[in-house]
C-alpha cells in the first residue's frame, strides 16, 4: 500500500481470501471458498462456471450487496465493507453499472425517461438526465427506442436498453450477471456485440458472469469458478474472430 491506502498496483477490484457461508436450515452451505483475484483497469473479465458454483454470490459480494463471511473486497484500494449500508448504496449508484438476467421498468414511462431515472435519483435535474439518457442511447446505437414503452420491446431489446441504463451514470465498472440468460441465441449474440463495441471504444472495466463458454473469446481475463473456488484465472488475448457469428 502507498500512503493514501491504495494498493501498489492500480487495480479496479482486489478480492482477497473471500469466503461466504450461508446457513440453510442449520446446515452450512459454503458458496465461496477462499477466492482471490485482481481485476485491472480496462479489463473485460468473464467469470464463468457451472450453475450453482457461486458466481452470483461472488458478484453480490463484490458490489457490496452481500458481506462476506471472511475476506476483503477493495475498490481501487478501498475496502468497500468499511462503508456502511447507505454509503455502499451511494457508491453503487455513483460508480457502478449493473445488469441482470432481466430488467425491471416503469411501464408508463418511455425508454428515455426510464433510463434517466437513476440520474434523477442522484439529484440530477430531469432535463440534464434526459439529455444524458438520449446521449447514451445514441452511443449504443439504440436511439430508435427512446420514445417507445418498455412493454413494446422484445426481451433482447430490453436487455440492450438495460445496458444503456446501466451506463447512465458513466460508471467506472460495469457488472453483468448472466445478462443473456433469458435470451434466444440471436438476441444474446447481439447484446454481447453491443457490449463488446462499448468495451472497445470506452475501455471501461467490465465484469461479466456467465455459464456460457461461447462468449469467452470476448474476455481479456478469464476466471473459472468451480464449487466456490477459483480453479483458473488468467489474462488472455481477446479472440474476437472466435466469437460465434450466427
Ligand atoms: P451461481 O450464480 O453460480 O449459479 P450462486 O451464487 O447463486 O451460484 O449459488 C452458489 C451456492 O450458494 C448454491 O449452492 C446456492 O444454493 C447457495 N446460495 C446462494 N445464495 C444463497 C442464499 N441467499 N441462501 C442460502 N444459500 C444460498
Ligand atoms: Mg447466478
Keyphrases for this structure?
246 residues; alpha/beta; six-stranded mixed beta sheet; 6 helices; 10 strands; 30% helix; binds adenosine-5'-diphosphate; binds magnesium ion
Report on this model:
Helix 3 packs across helix 4, helix 3 packs parallel to helix 5 (155-166) and helix 5 packs parallel to helix 6 (185-202). The protein has helices at residues 55-62, 85-95, 111-121, 126-139, 155-166, 185-202; strands at residues 13-24, 27-39, 44-48, 70-75, 78-79, 96-99, 173-177, 205-210, 221-226, 229-235. The longest helix has 18 residues, at 185-202. The strands form 2 sheets. It has a 6-stranded mixed β-sheet, sandwiched between helices. Strand 9 and strand 10 (229-235) form a beta hairpin. The N and C termini lie far apart (47 Å). It has 246 residues and is of the alpha/beta class. The structure holds adenosine-5'-diphosphate (ADP) and magnesium ion. Adenosine-5'-diphosphate (ADP) is lined by residues 22, 24, 29, 31, 51-57.
Amino acid at each position: 500500500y502507498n500512503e493514501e491506502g491504495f494498493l501498489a498496483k492500480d487495480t479496479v477490484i482486489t478480492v482477497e481470501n473471500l469466503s461466504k457461508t450461508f446457513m440453510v436450515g442449520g446446515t452450512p452451505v459454503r458458496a465461496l471458498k477462499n477466492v482471490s483475484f485482481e481485476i485491472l483497469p480496462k479489463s473485460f473479465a468473464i467469470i464463468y462456471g457451472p450453475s450453482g458454483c457461486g458466481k452470483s454470490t461472488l458478484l453480490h459480494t463484490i458490489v457490496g450487496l452481500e458481506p462476506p463471511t471472511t475476506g476483503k473486497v477493495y475498490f481501487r484500494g478501498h475496502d468497500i465493507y468499511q462503508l456502511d449500508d447507505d454509503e455502499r448504496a451511494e457508491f453503487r449508484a455513483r460508480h457502478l453499472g449493473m445488469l441482470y438476467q432481466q430488467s425491471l421498468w416503469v411501464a408508463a414511462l418511455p425508454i428515455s425517461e426510464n433510463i434517466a431515472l437513476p440520474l434523477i435519483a442522484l439529484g440530477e435535474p430531469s432535463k440534464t438526465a434526459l439529455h444524458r439518457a438520449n446521449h447514451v442511447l445514441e452511443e449504443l446505437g439504440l436511439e430508435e427506442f427512446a420514445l417507445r414503452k418498455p412493454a413494446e420491446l422484445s426481451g433482447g431489446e430490453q436487455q440492450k436498453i438495460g445496458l444503456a441504463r446501466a451506463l447512465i451514470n458513466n460508471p467506472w465498472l460495469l457488472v453483468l450477471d448472466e445478462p443473456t440468460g433469458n435470451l434466444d441465441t440471436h438476441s444474446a449474440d447481439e447484446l454481447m456485440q453491443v457490449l463488446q463495441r462499448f468495451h472497445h471504444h470506452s475501455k471501461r472495466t467490465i465484469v461479466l458472469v456467465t455459464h456460457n463458454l461461447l462468449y469467452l473469446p470476448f474476455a481479456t481475463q478469464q476466471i473459472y469458478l468451480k464449487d466456490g473456488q477459483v480453479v483458473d484465472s488468467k489474462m488472455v488475448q481477446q479472440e474476437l474472430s472466435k466469437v460465434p457469428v450466427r
